[in-house]
UniProtKB/TrEMBL annotation:
Coiled-coil intervals, chain numbering: none
UniProt organism field: Pedobacter heparinus (strain ATCC 13125 / DSM 2366 / CIP 104194 / JCM 7457 / NBRC 12017 / NCIMB 9290 / NRRL B-14731 / HIM 762-3)
Keyword Iron (UniProt): yes
Taxonomy, superkingdom: Bacteria
Residues that, per the record, bind substrate: T133, V134, S135, G136, G137, D166, G179, D183, N274
Reported cofactor(s): Fe(2+)
Protein name: tRNA N6-adenosine threonylcarbamoyltransferase
Homology family: Belongs to the KAE1 / TsaD family.
Residues binding Fe cation: H110, H114, D302
Claim: Flavoprotein is one of the keywords in the record: no
Length: 333
């Protein structure tokens, strides 16, 4: 029997979840809207809002799961990677909470947790599988041999896919985070209206900074001819940018699947909520004979349920940390 309380605070979501014997019974997420007008997360503001949110979010999770603090078996938390000030709030709270209740502590790598979110609900991928983890800070192709044996086989050399969405949104004067808005406008647009170059990067790695620059120069050039270019073509621009990003992501994923001879394929992270990516992956699965695993929307972007399920498997494995544990803005995979 185990009841694990998990805390996620690596970026701008304060989230607490409860995992009761491997089942998620609460997953409370407090989003921060304060960053909308800045084009990105302001670290100092994020950590202050985490401090305001953490206690009410903990209380709500315990209420939702109908458990008392006395029934908890362990406290899991995101140790990194992420914004140091944001992580510090979750890690400090987890440590004092565990100390006060005399509970063991479980440190979770945020990027592992995005992948392990696939073990919350059925169907679950079979080992070994490949996961394309695409978020605001990371773009990785990961080979997963077991819950604890994961290897990055390809990753971005510069910007993450989420950044490509968010930076494009900024160029288009859309608020942060722009990914979901580009997705929304793309649904009404023509993905072949404008063409952007596909970067030629070796092996299974990615690069998105060139695409961002190409988009910026394209928009500037068009605006010289027509100052209302963005407003008049927003849906087509969004659909074309999304199409380019999805193509880049899936071409390398296909290469990885062929190279490793694996047909169990998953996606994870905030960008896995993108409808264009989800559709294109399904289509590719049909062509390639893959079994694909696409997370439920609530487990794509940052959430503590994924920390809780990762924590649960670490709990079963007896993998605990001491009170001297510190957050890591960069964390070894
Ligand atoms: O995993 P996540 O919540 O946080 C990080 O760990 O970074 O990912 C956030 C990223 C942001 O860049 C956001 O724009 C992107 O995920 N995102 C999307 C969509 N929903 C979230 N990008 C494209 N389409 C979406 N529907
Ligand atoms: Zn994340």
């Amino acid at each position: 029997m185990s009841v694990i309380l998990a805390i996620e605070s690596s970026c701008d979501e304060t989230s607490v979840a409860i995992c009761n014997n491997g089942k998620i019974t609460a997953n409370v997420i407090a989003n921060q809207t304060i960053h909308e007008n800045y084009g990105g997360v302001i670290p100092e503001l994020a950590s202050r809002v985490h401090q305001q949110n953490i206690v009410p979010v903990i209380q709500q999770a315990l209420t939702d799961a109908k458990v008392s603090k006395k029934e908890l078996s362990a406290v899991a938390f995101t140790r990194g990677p992420g914004l140091l000030g944001s992580l510090l709030v979750g890690v400090s709270f987890a440590k004092s909470f565990a100390l006060a209740l005399d509970l063991p502590l479980i440190a979770v790598n945020h990027m592992h947790a995005h992948i392990l979110a696939h073990f919350i609900d059925d169907p679950k991928p079979a080992f070994p599988f490949l996961c394309l983890t695409v978020s605001g800070g990371h773009t990785q192709i990961v080979l997963i041999r077991s819950y604890f044996d994961m290897e990055i086989v390809g990753e971005t050399l510069d910007d993450a896919a989420g950044e490509a969405f968010d930076k494009t949104a900024k160029i288009l004067n859309l608020p942060y985070p722009g990914g979901p808005l580009i997705d929304k406008h793309a649904k009404e647009g023509n993905p072949l209206a404008f063409k952007f170059p596909e970067p030629q990067i070796k092996d299974l790695n990615y690069s998105f900074s060139g695409l961002k620059t190409a988009i910026l120069y394209f928009i500037r050039a068009q605006e010289k001819e027509n100052p209302d270019f963005i407003a008049g073509n927003l849906n087509d621009i969004c659909a074309s940018v999304q199409h380019s990003i999805v193509d880049i992501l899936l071409n390398k994923l296909k290469k990885a699947a062929q190279q490793y001879g694996i047909k169990e394929i998953a996606i994870a992270g905030g960008v896995s909520a993108n409808s264009g990516l989800r559709h294109a992956l399904q289509k590719m699965a049909g062509q390639q004979g893959w079994n694909v695993y696409i997370p439920a929307f609530q487990y794509c972007t940052d959430n503590a349920a994924m920390i809780a399920i990762a924590g649960y498997h670490k709990y079963l494995n007896g993998d605990f940390v001491g009170q001297d544990v510190a957050p890591l803005s960069r964390m070894e995979f």
